[in-house]
Design brief:
Helix content is 37%, strand content 19%. It is α/β, with parallel strands linked by helices and 236 residues long. The protein has a single domain, classed as Carbamate kinase, CATH 3.40.1160. The longest helix is centred in the middle third of the chain and has 25 residues.
Amino acid sequence: MSTYKRIMLKLSGEVFSGKNDYGIHKPSLYDIAEQIIEVSRLPVQIVVVVGGGNIWRFKDTKDTNIERTVSDSMGMLATIMNSVALQSALETLGAQTRVLSAVDIPALAEPFIKRRALRHLEKGRVVICAGGTGNPYFTTDSAAALRSLELSCDVLLKATNVDGVYDRDPHKSKNAKKFAELTYQQAIEGHLGVMDQAAFSLCEEQQLPIVVFNFLKRGSLLKAARGDKIGTVVHA
């Protein structure tokens, strides 16, 4: 039994590329879908926000000299590509899904309208929010925070490649200390990089709890969605 009624899952684009540096890796795509399907069997409604860093990201492509707002728009399109790929994988496995996009692209996705998204959730569909916020200069972390609040999610589950928040990079330091819990203020003062500042400020202001966990460890998403102790919880 889940302690949550509605969850937001934030997936980075990198989880779609698997061991590759770029693109969509089919086994990784279906692994993501299978884990979401597991959660869908709980009495919990699922919203997903997907990044696009496996296809395009401004900070990795500055040498192209493409103007920032144009580059960010390309990044939004990348999130739509990942979202429709995830939708296809989920529906292949039997889930009902809808992609709702902040960028108008009617051939691939419905427009994001709050009432429509809530109706899909009430019908038991997995709602995938694509296109970021629809605005340049905002990351998909910000989109996840914004959609979480708009859709009254109980928690934001931030999927990463480490099992929580540490005081330093655990991949580089054996002495890195993991936090089981953090307040928003501790995370800010420690410069712990839970999310980008705009997204984090939204969560802090509205006291939306964040759970940072290792998505690559099979079964961790199910535990996080059930409200089990996992990763790091950031709260008021």
